[in-house]
Amino acid sequence: MASFRAFLNSPVGPKTTHFWGPVSNWGFILAGLADTQKPPELISGQMTGVLCVYSALFMRFAWVIRPRNHFLMVTHASNECVQLYQLSRWAKGQWYLQQKEDKPTTSQ
């Protein structure tokens, strides 16, 4: 009971925005995971890119602030992974990540 009370009253506990901010950000991750079942033509490359930058910036923020918020950092690291996967699906769907075929040279 003492450890639960300590968690409740900690600087990153459920009585603070340091806890509820990351909880609400899991919506981005769950939406990204749900979108992996959709065709890549429906992915917005711009929005996915913005979410990648957003998560990268806030991972650093979670590391720098005091008290250090590991929950926020893990949340944004998870979102970064999901969004980078979505970005790769979008790029493949747009033919950005196609391998170039070597054309045979003909000698005359």
TrEMBL record:
The chain crosses the membrane at residues 43-63. GO terms for cellular component: mitochondrial inner membrane. It is found in: Mitochondrion inner membrane. Keywords: Membrane, Mitochondrion, Mitochondrion inner membrane, Transmembrane, Transmembrane helix, Transport. One of its GO terms (biological process) is pyruvate import into mitochondria. Belongs to the mitochondrial pyruvate carrier (MPC) (TC 2.A.105) family. This is Mitochondrial pyruvate carrier.
